[in-house]
Amino acid sequence: xxxxxxxSQSAITDWKRNAGAAYNVxxxxxxxxxxxxxxxxxxxxxxxxxxxxxxxxxxxxxVLYWQRGTxxxxxxxxxxxASASTRFIEESVQTSDSQQVGNTWRYVRKDGGPxxxxxxxxxxxxxxxxxxxxxxxxxxxxxxxxxxPDSATSFQTTFQxxxxxxxxxxxxxxxxxxxxxxxxxxxxxxxxxxxxxxQAMSVxxxxxxxxxx
Length: 213
What we know:
Blueprint: E1 3-11, E2 23-34, E3 47-50, E4 54-58, E5 63-67, E6 70-74, E7 79-89, E8 99-105, E9 123-136, E10 141-146, H1 149-170, H2 195-204
């Protein structure tokens, strides 16, 4: 139903006047849509995670990272995705598919009850959201909330399966361990190349099944 990007998070010292929250979170609602990157010709319309000043285009072979008119490339193998769940205090319920797991007060006592010193005190819903944390070695660090926790978990599981399947289909066939003069291959003795070796072979234009030499 909704995705939010977390822009910043700061510790709260006066928790009594902040519904008992430990952190003040700044976030903005974002969207996922299909869009072609500017100045890029393509025979498909890829998914785009629109973060306003930052856009991520999920192309078949890479993630195209756009920010302030500049493009960068992120390899799918370099992306790390983790998921979790979190309890978040809302001003009001934001989406119909979110689960409310409790209530708190705008001005709260240590025992969780309302602070009677404030006349305009009201209850606030506590919602259960999913969390997606995406990072890369190049410095990408994004945190999202999803209106349903299972959506975050499903995304992590599906994305990691996609990564493994992609590596499996790009690995070259292992070299034969038979004698140099033999034209047959012994598949039972095959060993899998590590991903970095497979990438290096691809850059050099070596064909699957070539010898180590």
